[in-house]
Amino acid sequence: MLQIRFHGRGGQGVVTAAELLSIAAFAQGHHAQAFPSFGSERTGAPVVAFCRIDDREIRVREPILAPDVLIVQDPTLLHQVDVFQGLGADGYVLINSKRGFDELGVGEIAQRFRRERLLTVPATEIALKHLGRPLPNAVLLGGFAALTGIVTLDAVAHAIRDKFTGKVADGNVAAATEAYQAVSHALVEVTDAQAD
Amino acid sequence: MDQQVKFYQTGTFTVGNRLLSPELRTVQASTARSNSLNSGHRACQGCGEALGARYAIDAAMRATSKRLIAANATGCLEVFSTPYPESSWQLPWIHSLFGNAAAVGTGIAAALHVRALKSGRTASDVRVIAQGGDGGTTDIGFGCLSGMFERNDDVLYICYDNEAYMNTGVQRSSATPPAARTATTMAVGAAPGAEFGKGKNVPRIAMAHEIPYVATATVADLHDLEAKVERAMTIRGARYLHILVPCPLGWGSASHDTIRLARLARETGIFPVFEAERGEVTRVSKIRRRVPVDEYLRPQKRFAHLFGANGHADMLQRIQDEADRNIRRFHLLDEGSAA
Amino acid sequence: MLKQTEGSHAVAEAVALCRPDVICAYPISPQTHIVEGLGELVKSGALAPCEFINVESEFAAMSVAIGASAAGARAYTATASQGLLFMAEAVYNASGLGLPIVMTVANRAIGAPINIWNDHSDAMSQRDSGWLQLYAETNQEAVDLHIQAFKLAEELSMPVMVCMDGFILTHAVERVDVPEPTDVDAFLPPYSPRQVLDPADPVSIGAMVGPEAFMEVRYLAHAKQLSALEHIPRIAAEFEARFGRTSGGLVRGYRCDDAETIVVALGSVIGTLKETVDALRADGVKVGVLGIQSYRPFPLAAVRAALQGAQRVVVLEKSFCVGLGGVVSTDVRVALSGLQLHGYTVVAGLGGRAITRASLERMLKDAVADRLAPLTFLDLDWRIVERQLAREAQTRRSGPIAENLLRDVGTVAAKVA
Description:
CATH architecture of chain B: 3-Layer(aba) Sandwich
Distance between the termini of chain C: 34 Å
Structural class of chain C: alpha/beta
CATH topology of the largest domain in chain C: Rossmann fold
Helix content of chain B: 25-40%
CATH topology of chain B: Rossmann fold
CATH class of the largest domain in chain C: Alpha Beta
Largest sheet of chain B: 8 strands, mixed
CATH class of chain B: Alpha Beta
CATH superfamily of chain B: Thiamin diphosphate (ThDP)-binding fold, Pyr/PP domains
Largest interface: B-C, 47 and 45 residues
Number of strands of chain B: 8
Low-confidence stretches of chain B: 9-13
Number of helices of chain C: 15
Number of strands of chain C: 16
Strand content of chain B: 5-15%
Distance between the termini of chain B: 32 Å
Largest sheet of chain C: 7 strands, mixed
Shape of chain B: globular
Shape of chain C: globular
Number of domains of chain B: 1
Strand order of the largest sheet of chain C: 3-2-4-5-7-6-13
Strand order of the largest sheet of chain B: 2-1-3-4-6-5-7-8
Mean pLDDT of chain B: 94
CATH architecture of the largest domain in chain C: 3-Layer(aba) Sandwich
Order of helices and strands of chain B: HEHEHEHHEHEHEHHEEHH
Oligomer: heterotrimer
Radius of gyration of chain C: 22 Å
CATH superfamily of the largest domain in chain C: Thiamin diphosphate (ThDP)-binding fold, Pyr/PP domains
């Protein structure tokens, strides 16, 4: 079973992100469970959402305490909430930012994990470009697909079109695709750098 | 067809059906009436509510060709009409709770509508009445009543107003008039009886909801009451009928005075009788022969403390002022009527 | 059809498949998505003919359902927590009159203090009302139970509440098989009332009943619940035959056959317990789970049969009887009366506190070692409790309890889980 934890702020579509991922996983024939940690609904407040993916029925209902993947939609949370809590040593981290881990001030924490599995992607900027709105949730899923390979970009696109329609769907798919390519590219660079 | 009839019987203003052509006679005048609230119920001698309910439901049964269902709030009417193991009611009738008659009526109307649609009709021919006393209407049932009004549900709500919680022993409701003695507004102290400045006028609140039809009536004017029920039944949507029904026990009046007191309530201006549609008054029953409020109050022991050696002339004056205000507000007097 | 969908939405679809005539509901977290889903289905014409009524309170919601059901309509509503309490008078009225209303209770804690998260205190408060109570373990079971509920309610002429954990199930997006309309129609025939308000055949419903007959009328409600002990498994079997999966029934055991310790629970926590049990079994601990699907009627015989072979029974419940202990555990004790085994009550998850595998595992290990107290509050922070008690002992004007505790707990938003 894979456990993905999403961090963000109210209004950034964190809950939808988890849901979209579960739909993408479902589209690929997996079992998936997505749910939010239920704070009072308030724009701007820290929000956590969860997604589990497995090839058999998912029975457990507890919050994800030991995630395999972290997706951080809002980097301002990094010094406010212990987003890395419980992340396994082989865990993946994807942060929405145009800056790197060191620049974000989490370089030290990052050393506890596998360098090639930690990436940032400028999802908000990509979203603004394709959607005209700073909604990074679906964009980050494109990056997630490239980073982990757990779901394909096609499955992510399918999930986006399942939830949204028209230009919103098109924009999100385009943005997710760009994030996918950006992350794929970055991964190649990291692998090359490690090989050196 | 309108027929101008003048009544010359002395002593009372008794309605004489035999002076009218058959089609203008009241439902009660006919032996073919439904008698929907059948005899054998346990109401007190002279109960205004039993009278009002029989008048109203019989009129509604004729208007709907007996295609009628009633939802009844807890209260005197419900209790005396269904003494275990009997029921007086000659139509489908349900009693649920004290505060939900209007909501139960809403549910029945919705069910009838859907079942009609399911059998290929556009609407049901069966109509719904929700009814209760003032307690169940103005207080505990107020929320459900307002909800039914604002949704414009197809229900006629009838309030039988005897101005207190009678069935439980005459306690004050928000329909209890100022100065009246009840078990919770005793006639003691500096300001005996119910306080001035409190209370609710539900007919005017009903009008504020701008529902299709609002009317007030009393058991003193049978023609008027029946006509209003009939009128209400020609309309679809939320309708409200507020009937003043004197209670000999609670009011401390003689059981033979029920109809007379209802008439005096109108003739003093204390109880305006009118019709309204969508928030605008469309018709009023003019006061035929105005009387001072004393004449209405004296026969009722619940106002006894206002009179006599230890009486309260100031409170009487306030009641008179209120009656005057009603007369002005509703234009209850024709020009040139004697005061 | 297999879908990846939010629990609430799946339930809305399931209710719509049952062709309700009248839906009346008042919004309350966490049931809102259910009634919104149904409202949309009615407004779009997908569910027709159906009257969807936006009522002004939960009391009105149940009252409208009462009127509709009495007039021969299949009626449905949904609520939770405070809303269930607000309609309590009408809840008793519906069962007292024998009206087959179906209601979803999206289980949520009752305040004060106000709390929007899951526990079972709401439905438990109505356990004596005469309503049948069915508990869903998963969103699939929630869907299936609603379909079974209408059939059960109408066969018995008694109202049924289907309980599903608020947020944990209602707001979880997971795989659900939503049945086909033709299958549901074949399983659930149109409503044929035992009593109905009909001008062609007038009856008086809801008359007063005095001391002469009240006990008999009330006994009949009891008799109906007892007969439900047979209806429920039969309907579940019919459901399985038509839809091909196990759902509902009275109780369901998991690895109980040779278990020395059995945990009894209701609702979604059963899933987490199964995972915990598997882990403990891998370590050689003989533990099992008994899920109770039908809480009212309480299946005394089935519970006894499932538990009598065990040495110890732990009732894990999201409810408690203030000043006494457990609610469900008290009922389980009745089922086990006369048997020699160790019984433990574990109150957990109140107000939505997460129940983790780690905590469950620790607790069960304690149970197996007979280290567990008779009554345990799982994961209780004794530190802040002691601080508040000390505070109260010191000062008369100690202030609102909730405010004091929250100050001690610190910023919740910074926490991860």
